[in-house]
Amino acid sequence: MKPTDHPIDKHQIYFCTFLHLLILMTASIQIAFSYLYTFLIAGVVANKRFDKHQVLTLYPTTPEHLSFIQDLENDNNIVDFWSPDDATSVRINEKVDVRFSSAVLGNIKMKLQEQKMDYEVKIANLQQLIDEQLDLKQTRGSKNGSYDYNVYHTYDEIQQWIADTANQYPNLARKSFFATSTERRNVDMLTIGKSTDKPIFLIDCGVHAREWISPAFCQCFINRMLSQYGVDPQVTRMMDEMTWMIIPLLNVDGYEYTWANDRMWRKTRSKYDTFCTGVDANRNFDINWSGEGASTEPCSNTYCGPSVESEPVVKALSDIIRKYKGNIQGYIAFHSYSQVFVYPYSYAYEDTENAAQLNDVSSRAASAIQQTTSKIYTFGPGYESMYLVSGGSKDWAYQMGVPLSYTIELRDTGKYGFLLPESQIDGTCQEMFQAMIMLAEEAITNT
Ligand code: 0X9
Ligand code: ZN
User: Fold this and answer.
1) pTM of the entire structure?
2) Which one, of 259, 293, 264, 292, lies nearest residue 278 by Cα?
């Protein structure tokens, strides 16, 4: 009998073939899974990269330049308006900061040359700035266990800090639930002051997710107020005479998204559209809602939302202003960047009845800053200082009777834009604290 005729051999062959098939199948399943995994990692888990994206400052001087800029599609992946934040807000003879992805950059520069429009490369490689932004990270959290106010913190860290702060200063600070966000995260508020029934100063930080210096400022402001009470006479007066209601981080969902997925995210994370996510929380308030300076297009970075106060965090802020109507002397929304004190109105070319007072206080605050760090902050009504904004919080707060109502744009003026290095947090805190003394004094004497 030849070995090949052996019945067992036949079975062995069948068995081998089966094994091969099995191995092949397992391998292809593995490959398929690894692709899926990579896809998931890249698309869902990993942070979006901005290699060779550039921010250009454009200087439009003719109507042709203007329409060229306005024709640039406001697609978040290709063209991202930094300042002003929307193509429709661009004006002749006013500079425009825009981020372009590497894919379109060459073409854009060619067209700018054809158009004879002056431009300047403001940020040459955005990814590099993102990597360098956490420039104090070597010392992150390592300062003998105490909270480090000079680094940027995640949502979880900020939540923990709010709780710890309230526990550390039981006589001066109280934590309260403020809202549940669209993605069901907790938004908390800290009420600080010697008593809780003084005239109110309401402050929110972190309305726009990518403006990280804003929540960082709120935290160092609160820390200074609490730690210097009874030590610094100005702080003591501010804490004795006013009740401070502060939301250190309002747009929690967007903020979390800037840490995990897309550093350039601005809006909330509500989904009202198949393709585009998010509402501009500073276009969602009940003041000329969906009017000029806001977009009804869900893909726009200034989308006003499907209805007034559609965003839970906007609803909560509006509710608190309604609740304490008549008792709120001051309101500030902290944003970045541009170094500007903006007061109402932003939705119309119209002055408030106390415009002179608002201008005067801003001017004092700006000189206090200049004396502290030599930084120049400008000031003026929204319609004049930047561009029209409808549905913004400070116009609405003013309309609801808050006399001193501001949007403050923190550092810088565009060198780093939203990617302000951590090494500049401290200076920003120092200068803005001096401005806050001026604003608080006005609010105290106003009552
Ligand atoms: O557009 C906004 O909501 C604010 N600027 S930001 O770059 N932080 O997004 C400005 C609101 C203040 N109003 C006006 N400048 N008119
Ligand atoms: Zn902003």
Assistant:
1) 0.88
2) 264
